[in-house]
Amino acid sequence: MTRFAHAIREELWSRGRLLESRLEHGEALGDETGILARDARDDALVAACDRELERLRAAMPEDALVRLVAEASLEEISSAMTVRVGPLSIVTDAVHVERDMDLLRRSRTLRSDAGLQAPDPSVPLLWLHGSAAVLLHEAAGHAQEHGHDPLTLPAWLRIDIPLRLRRATFRDVPLLRMSRVLVSQNGAPFDVPSDPVEVHLVEGGAYEPLTGMVTVRVAAAEHRGLPVAPFEIHVHRNAIRFLGASGDPIRYPGVICSREGQELVVGSWAPLLLTELT
Amino acid sequence: MIYRKEGAVVRWENGVLVRVSESGVAIEEGERFECRPEGSSRLAVDPAGVLALAQTIQERATPIVIERLIVTHGVAEHECEGRRWREETQRFHLSLTHGALRALIDATPERLDDVAPIAAALSRAATVERTAPQRLRLAPHVAAALLPGLSDVARIFQTAGGLDGYGKPIVATSGAPWPNWYRPSYRMRPVRMPLNVSIEADSAWIDDALPRALALLAPPAGNTARVLIVDGAEVYPSTIRVERVAGVASERFWYPYAGGSFGAEMVL
After folding, report:
1. Distance between CA atoms of A254 and A203, rounded to whole angstroms?
2. Residue A122: which pLDDT band, with cuts at 50, 70 and 90?
3. Residue A203: which domain range?
4. For chain B, what percent of residues have pLDDT higher than 90?
5. What span, in angstroms and rounded, lies between the C-alpha atoms of A212 and B247?
């Protein structure tokens, strides 16, 4: 018999006004006959959520649409803050929100001009701010969840994506999911071509397990110093060429992964990475 | 506005039987929405029906690979502003795969007969995408999935019957502002939208000789959908864009798309 129990506090704020507030709690008992789930309350878990939510509230920006989520389970306490300004959003936390908001505001300047052109798909992409973690989340992480072959990587590139059984709520069936994506490099070449497209912020992505196709929606990018229109990369996972990388892994603020209707935060780190789509 | 709900659901999800009971309250005050668990549910559902339905669907889908099968049976009691009502729902979601193709079906047990023809067609489908024929029939569940996105190209209306998320009667009407509200969970703020949509056309005549879009290969986007077309002995994937509806059969079937959708055999 397994037992899972958790509590979740969620709030939606718009420019400092509270619009929505949710409390959710429950437990799931699992055995060979299935899962028995009910909305039982564990006061200690609810209290832990309240403390975590307070930390988020104290750190949240006032000039944005902000969703705060604090969760306490028997295993861990976690929290996430989704901040939307205009068409762009990040997923951050109380510790990193200030730095991540700088990235969001800088990226917004890349979205301010109408009528921008999407880049030529053959131009190499330089993934900044850890955004390459999203590409590898789709191309390597989801493929791993489906038991597909590992990506062929250059010797200097390492991907560490541990999987574990996770569930979004006590009502859900636990699935083997990514707990984090850590991309690192050791001795990588870094001969940056003269005019790569620089990816700043990614809006989302997908992996199609039937075909191996990877989709990444780039929300903010620039080319030759000028903003480019939001664009979508749609490529087979084996058609991604890793040309080079630089520096330590950078925490990317932005991965809420949805699979089977269950949304989970996946911590993501990657160095500057240069790719080409063949 | 205070809304209370208690319920129980049995769900068979890819081989795992899940039994859930919960009850909660949602409070709307001006622009603010708040919800939390409250009390405990006295309701229960016998899992036998869900287990039997899951077994039947698996048999009908043979020999096609089932990527995902979710069968649910739920009961709920609602209360809002002195109105009390009870609901019972049964649904299934099925995803079938063959090579790189995936067929999707969302339906009720009454539409179980949709499954076997889709599985059979998928098993002999070509993989190469082809241009859709100019004139085409849509199977009822394909039409039902597309209906909510057809308001710009067809006369879409809400069908009277049942109660909405505030326990108010769903009335017959067409066009915004829609008078009724959708509330699939007490944790979700109600959304004003058309419920149990249907479509009007000048003709109910269906030419049975036309090629037929038998299955959805992806969720529709507006008036566009990727579908599996059966044209005589040929079965192939194609993308259709609905720009004009020439005929809709009079027999309608309810499907759980958006706030409910009455599908019918349809001619484009």
Report:
1. 8
2. confident
3. 125-277
4. 92
5. 39
At B113 the three-state DSSP class reads: helix
Q: Are residues A141 and A96 in the same domain?
A: no
- Look up the ipTM and state it: 0.91
* Site of tokens 């259709």: B240
A39 and B102 in contact by Cβ < 8 A? no
Cβ-defined contact of A19 to B32 (cutoff 8 Å): yes
H helix runs in chain A, sequence order: 43-59, 97-109, 132-136, 143-145
Q: Which residues in chain B are contacts of A34 at CB distance < 8 A? A: 16-19
In a domain, A153, yes or no: yes
Residues A255 and A149 in one domain: yes
| Sequence-ordered list of residues with C-beta below 8 angstroms from that of B144, at least 6 positions apart, any chain | B253, B254, B255, B257, B261, B262, B263
Tell me whether residue A119 is in a domain.
no
Residues A266 and A135 in one domain: yes
Q: Which of B23, B32, B41 sits opposite A18 (nearest CB)?
A: B32
**Residues A224, A101 share a domain:** no
Domain boundary, last residue among A62, A77, A109 = A109
* Minimal CA separation from B161 to chain A, in Å: 29
Strand partners, B254: B262
- Residues in B closer than 8 angstroms to A171, CB to CB, are 18, 20, 22
Partner residue opposite A210 with nearest CB, options B14, B33, B100: B100
Q: pLDDT per residue over A15-27, tens digit each?
A: 999 999 999 999 9
A21 to chain B: which residues are within 8 Å by CB?
A: 32-35
The residues pairing with B169 across neighbouring beta strands, listed in sequence order, are B163
Nearest to B22 among A20, A36, A39 (CB): A39
pLDDT value at position A115?
A: 58
Q: B16 and A38 in contact by Cβ < 8 A?
A: no
| Beta partners for residue A86, in sequence order | none
State whether A19 and B24 contact (CB < 8 Å).
Answer: no
Nearest CA in chain A to B98: A210
pLDDT (mean) for B224-252: 96
Domain annotation covers residue A259: yes
Number of domains in chain B: 1
For residue B100, the tally of other CB atoms under 10 A from its CB is 13
d(C-alpha B7, C-alpha B42), whole Å: 8
Structural domain span for residue B77? 2-267
- Number of separate domains in chain A: 2
